[in-house]
Fold this sequence. Notes:
mainly beta, 42% strand, globular, 3 helices, 5-stranded antiparallel beta sheet
Amino acid sequence: MTSRYRLALAATLTTIALAAPAATPSIERLAISTPMSDVRLAVSPDGRHRLWGVVDRTPGSGLEIVESWLVAGQWTPPVPVPFNGDANDFDPAFAPDGRSVWFFSNRAGGSGGDDLYQVAFDPRTRLWGTPRNLGPIVNTPGNEWAPSLSPDGRNLLFSSNRPGGSGKQDLYLAPLHGDRIGTPMRLGPAIETGEDEFDATFAGDARHIIFTRGDADGEAGTKLHLATLRAGTWHDAGALPAGINCSAGLNIGPSVSRAGRFYWSAACGPGDTRLDLWSADLASVLAGMPGDQRRTNAR
């Protein structure tokens, strides 16, 4: 069982102490959340198609990706995507043009552990292609998680516990040149603390990243943080407001839509023991950072 599966399953099975949410920013639990743990919502560029990961949708099914469509103002019930394999598939993210989806899987034929994959998608016909492994520049015998593309499509962000890192999950950026992927580089010492840094997304542009820090095994909790790029170096701007890090346990799976909505997964409802999908306005989330960090982020 991978630690990514243990983390998600922990929220399904373990009672989590809750932190009182702050008055601002306003947060909303998405009605599409299932009775199981839901992780990392991906929203298509046109806002009418949603993908996310579900843990044990049926007993023993492990990690699956499901999809839902906006029809006549209502979201359809989630169903498994046709490219799910026989093993775990998780952490979907749309490309900026909406014509492919990136995810991780431990299906047969990979490099070992969880690998990153890309699958083509035709928004007009709603047909999926065949997933392709991103290859040895990105994938290792370790675990690669949570791919995310920058809004301009020029960079791939993901986490990995590959050799040469901290030994835990670290965040990496790899340049994209069409179908070619350049050498991944770690975000740097201000981000790498010796804890797990994983589950990251670009926050509206290529200079702001929201990521998860804590225990990827799900035993000691995690919080969402903001990282900013200044003068070529990534800096940790601190944890997001308590209204976003609303669980004393797991706060994971951040993503941002083209419309400026911020999404994440947490067990924040009264008595909840599973991960739900939550939403807030991204601008309000960033404005909720301490004043000196807001000024830093505006430079």
